[in-house]
Amino acid sequence: MNPHYSEEEVRPKLVFLEGWIYRNNGIEKTYEFRDFISAFGFMTKVAIEAEKINHHPEWSNVYNKVMIRLTTHDAGGLTDLDFKLAEIIDNRILTK
Questions:
Q1: What is the pTM of this model?
Q2: CA–CA gap between residue 19 and residue 27 (Å, rounded)
Q3: Residues 6 or more apart from 72 whose CB is under 8 A from it?
Q4: Sheet of 58-62, strands arranged across
Q5: Cα–Cα distances in Å, from 86 out to 23, 35, 55, 91, 94?
Q6: CB hemisphere CA count around 89 (13 angstroms)
Q7: Distance (Å, rounded) from C-alpha 50 to C-alpha 92?
Q8: Which of 44, 55, 82, 95 is deepest in the core (most CB within 10 A)?
Q9: CB 78 within 8 A of CB 70
Q10: Beta-carbon-side half-sphere exposure of residue 38 (alpha carbons within 13 Å)
Q11: pLDDT tens digits along 9-38
């Protein structure tokens, strides 16, 4: 596994990820939907894409909100996989 990015390396990458914040060697974002079914449908789509790249989020769902945290545990911080999954979520799943 490649070494993780330092905080200094992460900051410029976040410019391309709207709404994601850096916290504790990971990036986080909360999504809000009109209802529980919409939030759960979003989670299902993310799960399918995450499985395709074998990289899985830390997440939780409360009614219409989905909180996602991405980090690569094996590397001890953020790697390209985290940024790839964030980009898939925002640019592929949310734009469908």
A1: 0.91
A2: 10
A3: 1, 4, 55, 78, 79, 81, 82
A4: 21-23, 26-32, 65-70, 58-62
A5: 15, 22, 11, 8, 11
A6: 32
A7: 12
A8: 82
A9: yes
A10: 8
A11: 999 999 989 999 999 999 999 999 999 999
